[in-house]
Write a structure and sequence with these properties.
single chain, mainly beta, 4-stranded antiparallel beta sheet, 31 strands, 1% helix
């Protein structure tokens, strides 16, 4: 029966943008809720306005929509519905990063017609581009493409999802996005990267942009299971838990004990005795949890995002002692902040907090993990998350206008809250200059 200790509401997914945070909450045997908070200026929170939130709030349009995954770009968000077999996007829309067919900003989750009916197994967002892998092994991409990060063989932006033809014949299992580069891993454990390559983040030994997926060198004979990206660095973990990094290393984010760039994947020797289970790349820092749930970090520490109690850079991976004794099972990093969930269900956040992205009700940075009780299992109050959630009309705003739509106060059927408008339609709403 629902209500048993092991069935209490709990966080089962994390995502971080540049200054906002999103979690996926399991609310019951078949219930789900997407919560968001932090910076909301570009609609990335999905609440129908452009306001920041310092506390988590439910995204009304996605309550009990069967969401299975969430991901964040710099100022936008995507969510996967297994129930509807649909991909939703919202937030800043320039360069087509939302895949809606135009460049309008979207303030309410919008279902993408091009992805309707497809079962999504992995989704990732960069600064301005999005990758989607389906259960058929296909890779789709959309958004900005000035460095070839869409893998389409050109540098033309794409406003709608496009099939990455260069990987047909391969079965893509996992995807990852840096700021302007992309990586994926196939079912054969092969790693391909493409896009912006100046610091070696493609992993092919060169510093050139690649407009089509290019196999990373140095991983021959290694079967990779996970890929992740920081802003301009790349990460892979093989089936034995060995971790490899390459790309930009100026802040020691590659965990090799130096500040050198790395042009091909290199094993992280400092973690050789650990079986890596989770990885997360931030703007200039990296975090790792091993199979026992111990958390390690390295890189840029200016805002405390490494969680080590100081704001100094960390050149050699160090254990986050504040979480010693806890087992980290979920891990995600934004540009300058970090989120983690432990096996006991405790939710922690740390780092930059100027827009309230830590979710603790303040705007003060913290250089140590701080528990957020409102998101910790056993303390979760669903009513608190839905109290201010309201249905709102789906809408889009041209980026050049920088307007937010304030929905009419008239009540609306809840089932219509997530329904798409006809192409080009604009809702009957009040417009407010931001």
């Amino acid at each position: 029966m629902w209500g048993q200790a092991d069935e209490l509401p709990k966080v089962v997914g994390l995502a971080c943008g540049s200054s906002h945070s999103v979690v996926l909450l399991q609310t019951g045997p078949s219930g789900s809720m997407v919560l968001s908070w932090g910076r909301g200026e570009d609609g990335q929170l999905g609440h129908g306005d452009a306001e920041d939130r310092q506390h988590p709030q439910a995204v009304f349009a996605l309550i009990n929509r069967g969401i299975t995954q969430v991901a964040c770009g710099a100022e936008y968000t995507v969510a996967v519905s297994g129930l509807d077999k649909q991909l939703y996007s919202w937030g800043w829309g320039d360069f087509g990063r939302l895949g809606t067919g135009d460049c309008r900003d979207v303030f309410i989750p919008y279902p993408l017609p091009a992805m309707a009916g497809k079962t999504v197994v992995s989704v990732a967002c960069g600064d301005t581009h999005t990758l989607v892998a389906t259960d058929a092994g296909e890779l789709w991409s959309f958004g900005r493409n000035q460095n070839g990060q869409l893998g389409l063989g050109s540098i033309q932006d794409s406003l709608s999802p496009q099939l990455v033809a260069a990987l047909q014949g391969k079965r893509v299992m996992r995807v990852a996005c840096g700021a302007e580069h992309s990586c994926c891993v196939t079912d054969a454990g092969e790693v391909y990267c493409w896009g912006w390559g100046r610091y070696g983040n493609i992993g092919d030994g060169e510093s050139q942009d690649r407009h089509v997926p290019t196999r990373a060198k140095g991983l021959e004979g290694v079967r990779v299971q996970q890929v992740a990206c920081g802003w301009r660095h790349s990460i892979a973990v093989d089936d034995g838990g060995a971790m490899y990094t390459w790309g930009w290393g100026a802040y020691a984010q590659l965990m090799h004990g130096d500040r050198n760039d790395q042009y091909v994947p290199k094993r992280v020797e400092a973690l050789r005795s650990h079986r890596v289970a989770l990885v997360a790349g931030g703007w200039r820092h990296t975090l790792v949890a091993d199979s026992e749930g111990r958390l390690f970090s390295a890189g840029w520490g200016k805002f405390g995002q490494c969680g080590l109690g100081s704001c100094e850079d960390v050149v050699t991976p160090r254990q986050v002692e504040a979480l010693a004794g806890e087992r980290v099972v979920l891990l995600e990093s934004g540009w300058k902040h970090t989120l983690a969930v432990t096996a006991s269900g405790k939710f922690y956040s740390w780092g930059r907090n100027v827009n309230g992205q830590l979710g603790n009700g303040s705007t003060q940075d913290t250089n140590l993990p701080v528990e957020v009780p409102a998101l910790s299992r056993g303390s979760i109050n669903l009513d608190a998350f839905t109290r201010d959630a309201r249905p709102a009309v789906l809408h889009g705003v041209a980026p050049s206008d920088r307007y937010a739509v304030v929905p009419d106060s008239a009540p609306m059927d809840a089932e219509m809250a997530g329904a798409p408008l006809p192409a080009g339609a604009v809702p009957d709403a009040n417009w407010q200059r931001m």
